[in-house]
Amino acid sequence: MITGERKPLPEIKEMIQPFRKILVVGCGSCVAECAAGGEKEVGVLASALRMDAKMAGHEKKIDELTLDRQCVYQFIDQLTNRIDEYDAVLSLGCGAGVQAVAEVFPDSIILPALNTTFIGETKDAGLWVENCRACGDCKLAFFAAVCPVTRCAKGLFNGPCGGSKEGKCEVDPENPCAWQLIIDRLDRSGRIDQLNEVYPPADWSRKQGKGPRKIYREDQNI
Amino acid sequence: MRNCYSFSGTKKCRLIDKDVSKKTSFFYVVIPKRKLQDKRIGKMDQKSAGLKLTIFFCQQIDANQDAHRRSLEKELGSQISFFPLPCSGRIEPLHLLRSLEKGSDKVYLLACAEGSCRYQEGNLRARKRLTYARTLIEEIGLEAERLELINMATGNSKTIEEIARELLAREADVKPSPL
After folding, report:
1. Which long-range contacts (CB under 8 A, 24 or more apart) does B29-34 make?
2. ipTM above 0.90, yes or no
């Protein structure tokens, strides 16, 4: 899941300041799960902005709409007959959603209200933790489904570093040592010998250096 | 030059010319009701100050809440709004913000005593959500006091009407909303 956090209100206010009619658009997928950009958050932000504008004596029309997914054209299409009514769209989608909407409506002003943060899991109610860097060369099979690149503070492929204490990371003792987790899990499943291998560096060209990455599947292109 | 003093909602002003030999003239200015409320608000109870109250409350507080709140609703009309909840934990920051946006001056959330929630943690969640909503309204310049959580005493036997009347009799701690 892609996670995000709402930008500070003063930053949002500054962005929308030149515009009178604003549509706040949420996304019902990842950012709804992390309570940053779903229908409720759209309502809260729009309500706060309306009250703020009223108190400041500004005449603003601020409406709300939440798409099921803001990164898929079939859902973005719901904006087609509405977007021209507004001077700007304030998106509570992730960076992908903001750009997808902007691409579909090249003449409209699309503004981001979220800081897209990381790919992670919902660890507990109200707690999201990063666990994937989207490197494009997944090695989880070797490391007992614990990513050392993301979860080890030093990103070590050939760890551990030797600095952990009682299973906690020396960089941030609140975090478990990723290599301790890897060793424990491999040991429990009888695969500890896997660590005798020395793994070559990951193919980072799959992550960066060639501009935006693409996935294309002919079978899905119907 | 103007010399003014006010009494019971009216301000009496006297124009004084620098040349004292000229006649002075009086005129009256009616102070707008809202401003009058603003001036006196510190000394008035919430009902007399004309504050619009919204009360979200856990239904477990008063088993017969439906009947008990009716007379007060009829008596005060739009000055008071009740929103019964199956548990105070059902509250969302959105409910609180919408109430303020629609013109409430003060929003109360009545929850059971801590440790006695029928659903274990509902009132604890309610506190967290109300605290979050307070930070949101402070961001836009509204006073945090406009949102208030009240945990009822353990073994509360007061009806929702009695509780609401006590709230109305409280001294107003906020001015009428600028919204």
Report:
1. B29/B4, B31/B6, B33/B9, B34/B176
2. no
